[in-house]
Structures are given as C-alpha cells and as structure tokens.
Write a structure and sequence with these properties.
five-stranded antiparallel beta sheet; 47% strand; globular
Length: 146
C-alpha cells in the first residue's frame, strides 16, 4: 500500500453533537439502544438540532449526556412527537428527573439553576412496551450555560 500527502489540520475538533446544540466546548456521550444524531431537517436555532433515533422500538431508549462545571444556569429548547403519556423525552440533572414531555409538544425552552461544582446533564428518550405514535422522537437544541 501507499500513503501520499497526509495532512493534519491545526483546527480544533469539536463534538458534532455539541455543534448541533450550538455549544462547542462540551463533549457528549451517547448510550442506550440507539444513538442520538445530528438532525438538519428539524431545529429551533441555527441549521441543526440533536434527535433521538426514529428506529427505537418497544422497551428501548437513547441517552445523551455531558458534564458541566462552573455555571449557575442551564437552558435548552426541546420538542417531542410521541405517544402521549407513555413515550417520554426526559431531562435529568445528576440523575434526578427534572422534567419529561410526551405527545405533541413544539419547541419549548427550559431553564434550570444549578449550584457551583460539577453536574451531569442527561436527556433520555424512552419508549414503553407497546404502541407507536407521531414521529416517536425527541429533539434538543440551543443548549446554553450561563
């Protein structure tokens, strides 16, 4: 084999999930049955958001999380299209559920105060044991730390 003209850029590599959330100084981890992805067809701000996978089936979930520190407020926009009362987009701070939405909810801003120190932010889309409705997805966009 041959290698020809290998060039390494000097720019900063950012997490594509962070870029879609408009906050490039964070790194996100993805887990669960399916992975969140960059969505360019549905967004609140800029030209992209982050979406839970449409491929989730009964009793599956997708988790997106990051760790923050040195801030006092967390703000983001989210929306969902799911089976009302059963399939939820949830948000946690340090493992404690802060809010959850289901059904048809358009872009809504959420803001939470946090104490000083390190905190884990987690978004999870969870499907129950049966029935699909709407797009069966959740979206998150425009994450801000203040």
């Amino acid at each position: 084999g041959w290698v020809d003209k290998l060039e390494l850029g000097t720019g900063t590599v950012t997490d594509p999930i962070a870029e879609a959330l408009d906050i490039t100084n964070l790194t996100f981890s993805l887990s669960g049955t399916g992975e969140w992805y960059v969505e360019t067809g549905t967004y609140y701000f800029g030209n992209s958001s982050v979406a839970s996978p449409a491929s989730l089936t009964d009793n599956q979930n997708a988790v997106m999380e990051t760790t923050i520190s040195g801030v006092t407020s967390v703000s983001f926009f989210w929306k969902v299209s799911s089976e009302s009362g059963y399939d939820y987009l949830k948000f946690y701070i340090d493992g404690t559920l802060q809010d959850r939405i289901s059904g048809t909810v358009n872009w809504t801003q959420k803001t939470y105060s946090v104490t000083s120190g390190s905190h884990t932010l987690k978004w999870e889309y969870v499907k129950d044991y049966s029935v699909s409705s709407g797009s069966d997805m959740g979206w998150v966009d425009k994450l801000e730390l203040l």
